[in-house]
Amino acid sequence: MINKTLNNLFKGDKVIWMVFFFLCIISVVEVYSASSTLTYKQGSYFSPIIKHAWTLFMGIVVMLVVMNIKVQYFKIVTPFLLIFSIITLIWVLFAGEVNGASRWVSLMGIKFQPSEIAKGTMVLATAQLLAHMQTPNGADRNAFKYILIVCAFIVPLILIENFSTAALICAVIFMMMVIGRVPMQQLGKLLGVVMVVVALFVGMILIAPDEKAGQQTEVAGTEAVVKVEERNAVEKVFHRFSTWKARLLDFFDHTEVAPEKFDLDKDMQKGHSNIAIASSNFIGKGPGRSEERDFLPQAFSDFIYSIIIEELGIIGGFFVLLLYIILLIRTGRIAGRCEKNFPAFLAMGMALLLVTQAMFNMCVAVGLAPVTGQPLPLISKGGTSTVINCVYIGVILSVSIWATKKKTAEPTTQTVKMTVEN
Prior knowledge:
two-stranded antiparallel ribbon
């Protein structure tokens, strides 16, 4: 009776379930270990982890609801999610302000990041377009055009405030178009245009004034006041350029600095992340024994992978990486068994979204990419991002449950006879 109840509750692909639970267990342990700063500020040892565990629990509840929705019904919500994403992304530019970046808004007392919802919405819309416009020779050439139109409404709104999230979405959509058999000629042209645009954009970032320089003002007379007001208006539009510039220059600066001359106050994230990884050895210091968690900013979020390696060693870091790889490979097998295109494209898009973001985070932690501010999916401490990531897993499980499987050819009588005789 108990086994039957559990099977009904945790139905769907068992490997996906195992990966999800391993990630959740690692999340609870490492977030609790890395939350020393929050513990000190809130004056409670258990408050941060209780809040995080509650968020994970809410995510699991939402995931159970989503996975019990038949996959074909996801098509119905696509236009509504697109409209909601565009409205909230515009809203966040004017009304949202957290930690100097307009990324959060509050609706009915609930704070959320519109970009998190927009990511899943883009994958949903792209999967629907690719599935609807499939031909025996691949996707219709118009599918490429329609996908770019959808991107044009969403990506620029995210790009203004969060370059890394916009880049993540574009990378995932591009990979989905490759999987969806969009003509390579179109993809090649797109890649060329993107490279030119990125080069120009990076050039604009590098010539942008430094943040400190922009704050130095000399007010002398009415004309100077007008210039300051004009500059402030420009700074409101390009206020993120100085941050991006600092991150790019720091990443591409390969000048060797002696350990005693390294400025930990200036490069706190990079320095303490490197110290955490370098001091981990092969097996790590053990869960809860991190030393850099007290010094590393966002140790429980953006740089939690550094803390994982410090405490669990190279073995633990590789195990976490392996979990995401298994998630992608297993979702690929689920998609390969789907008879229809939409469930297959949708599942792969959700898996690519999670795994690509995880790779971004890990590369930042080990110094292979500039700081992006992307949390580690299903492990980092988060609010709406954790719940939304659980929704992505729920969609993959829904595909594994409800998507029509390809029919395998039944063996003929002659084949059976030959098998028995042999």
